[in-house]
């Protein structure tokens, strides 16, 4: 976590700690523990490029965490190289998923959707279904041990052959309702607009798979429009919506949720300063917005940290934060009974802590 402590009251910090949290946008490979990555690399018997983590933690973090002054999304994405190398066995995939649930539970996340790109772990010794099944098993064991509800979102990668991403959608269909809850498209947005992979989302729609798509992170509001036309009910980041009234109306009218991640948005230069982040303005304009970590390790953050930033740097109040948790619960790719349980937790918390603000 970055060193500078955010200046806010201990009462607000305690409120944040106690808040039941809902996180919809969290990448598995970007949220692995440093020690786990080090252990995984040490276990690997075939390490073709000799990649190892330095024993010094600060030097290791420099390889895994994007700097605050990261130049671009492409530079940010380079921090995933080592973690992806680690996710090449069923055991590693399962453990990484389990640990992410445990870390989320430690800060009172009651519902978590973790996403990852299964095609990046497929090789002759590990098939697509085994890759997905390993992550699902890790998450389900985490639910059993820590009580965190959730699901797995399968990401297609923008730079990959569209045929591979169709296979990802087909795999999502096989696991839908069995741990997998949706599909996504991730990677370098500037060079690979979403329409390249329209057949992936056509397949997902045919199979009834919920869709979220990374869009509007690199300044293109048209990518948001295209993503919604392709079937997305949620948009990953969506920063570029702010400057386009037609996109704002489209998101508002169709109840499209924007999954925003303040620290990541700052690092990838989607915003130049957190005070410029559009989250507060979008909420005020009646849009559906939620707050997320994106990548706990790469961005050196947590849900509590992101909420602190939103309150301290963007001027959001407790009711704004609670509303975003409720929006996230509404938009979760979860069965109705699970969404209802989340709302019960949120309502009880509001009755205890927010009645004086209503």
UniProtKB/TrEMBL annotation:
Task: Tell me the superkingdom of the source.
Answer: Bacteria
Query: Which cellular components does GO assign to this protein?
Result: cytosol
Q: Annotated Gene Ontology MF terms?
A: adenosine deaminase activity; metal ion binding
Instruction: Please give a single GO biological process term from the UniProt record.
Output: inosine biosynthetic process
Entry keyword annotation includes Hydrolase: yes
Domain Adenosine deaminase intervals: 20-347
- Write the record's keywords in alphabetical order, separated by commas: Hydrolase, Metal-binding, Zinc
Q: Which Pfam families match?
A: A_deaminase
**Is Zinc a UniProt keyword of this protein?**
yes
**Reported cofactor(s):** Zn(2+)
**Enzyme nomenclature, EC number:** 3.5.4.4
> Member of which family?
Belongs to the metallo-dependent hydrolases superfamily. Adenosine and AMP deaminases family.
Q: Output the PANTHER family linked to this UniProt entry.
A: ADENOSINE DEAMINASE
**What is the protein's name according to its record?**
adenosine deaminase
Q: Which organism is it from?
A: Candidatus Onthocola gallistercoris
Taxonomic classification, please? Bacteria, Bacillati, Bacillota, Bacilli, Candidatus Onthocola
Q: Which gene encodes it?
A: add
